[in-house]
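Section 3.1: Structural characterization of target chains.
Under the original work plan, the team committed to producing a structural model for every single-chain target entering the pipeline before any wet-lab resources were allocated. The record below documents one such target. The sequence was received from the expression subgroup and is listed exactly as submitted; it comprises 415 residues.
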Amino acid sequence: MTDNTFHLDYLGCRDLLAKRLAEPAPGRIQLLAGPRQVGKTTLLLELAERLGPRAIYAAADSPEATLPGFWERLIVRTEEAATAHPGAVLLLDEAHLLSNWAARLKGAWDGFRRRRTRIHVVASGSSALHLVTGSRESLAGRFERVTLTHWSAASLASAFRIAPRRASELLVRFGSYPGAFPLRDDRARWSAYVRDAIVEPAIGRDLLALAAVRRPALLRQVFGLAASSPARTLSLQKIQGQLQDPGALETIQHYLALLEEAFLVVGLQKYSTQAARRRAAPPKLVTLNNALLAVMDPQGSPDQKGDSARFDAWVENACLAHAWNSGQRVSSWREEPHEVDGIIEGSWGNWAIEVKTGPFRASELAGLLEFVRRHPRFKPLVVGGAEGRAPAERAGVTWIDWRDFLVGGVASSAP
């Protein structure tokens, strides 16, 4: 991912789809991908309400979808709607749960084109893996992909009417799933929601249905280890050694890739101009929503004053996840004795960042300064607390409060 043009929040996705659905029909199929519980179904239902009789909404995970002839009846309904209301829109939720979904959509779309039926198609799915694989196999040239990302602090602030910096603080401790967010004051209820509505369906159903997972218990262990290692660099051998049920390194690597495709965990590669060095270096594990850290950690959310080391790791995880979720290319860098927390490339620009929520000395930025010396197209940035502003500026490095970074990304750090 190197650009966030179609990697959007809820409002951005809604506005982009509304614009595309106003174009002459039939347009390309719109594939709406994204994590569980970020609002894809809500978005399709909102579009259906706006479109009125022009909309045909169907959910592939509904009981009706299991009945024989479901797809054929849906296409008949769609064509009848298009006859009565030219420019009608088929909104197919959780499309990837239909068998041969991509081939079915291809056949329907090709038929609409041949008959010049004026209809749009929007299909959603909770896993990038199956949507992308299926679309590349059967829908080449027929689709456009839009990703509804994990919510940012700015989205939380707007939706729940709280101060942006307060939203950042809560995002670090409780994540940003909109359904779970209002339950944060009742920890037991909040945890149950995250486990039952997000973790279990994603790992216990989506991934098992969409990819070859021969050892589901091992997949859960890899996820559990990753979610308990925020912003930590771990070799595959070290991951293997910490598992109760060790598997082959290739299997562990495959399961990490699946977790990324499900928008749960990403293993950041080392920044290097040489592809072989990127692949050989151990990944830096970043959980893509801090709610997953909180629900998997028996200690709960860390306190900044009482548990500063763990809090710093959670803030670093949240900042790197925010950049990744916003469509930036994110990597890390380590060459002993130097290390940089994150390397960001994309629409935000080219930045090397250090996340330090507490006080530190300017000498601790040696790794950051060494990286930008070797790679001068990158600008150095400290993302931290107020105590870090003075040492960052003494070292000639731009500083931004971590709460502001989680709201506006790097843009708000411009001098």
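Residues 153 and 171 are 6 Å apart (CA to CA).
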